[in-house]
Amino acid sequence: MKKIVSVIVLAMFMLTFAASAAEVKTEAKAAAENATKKVEVAGTAAEKKVEAAGTAAEKKVEAAGTAAEKKVAETKEAAATKTAEAAQKKTPGFEGIFAIAGLMAVAYLVLGRK
Fold it and tell me: What backbone phi and psi angles, to 5 degrees, belong to 79?
């Protein structure tokens, strides 16, 4: 009889462990599903942040490009202005040659009549 009681106690003990193992397996499966959902949510949030950062970077690059284009245009205008100013400058004393020639002509005419 003791053997039968021992076998029954052992069987109940094994059933308890089997039930506990099933519960642990169910809990582990639920935890795995929960972790998977959290990873998916974190991944989606990370994707949104990366997309926002990319958009911000694109805007900054576009703004920098626009600023560079403006500076290039300003530099071109300044260079054109300086070139035009340099072209308008006359050789110093060139007008003086005509003035002296004119005075000599007038002097020749005035002195030649006397």
Answer: -65, -40
- Structure letter (DSSP) for residue 29: H
Return the amino acid letter for 47. Answer: E
Using DSSP's 3-state secondary structure scheme, residue 93 falls into: coil
**Nearest to residue 29, comparing CAs of 21, 39, 18?**
21
Read off the tokens for 105. 């002509």
Q: Tens digits of per-residue pLDDT, 23-74?
A: 777 888 888 888 888 888 888 989 989 999 989 999 999 999 899 999 999 9
Predicted structure pTM score: 0.43
Q: Residue 16 half-sphere exposure, CB side, CA atoms within 13 Å?
A: 6
**Alpha carbon distance 114, 111 (integer Å):** 6
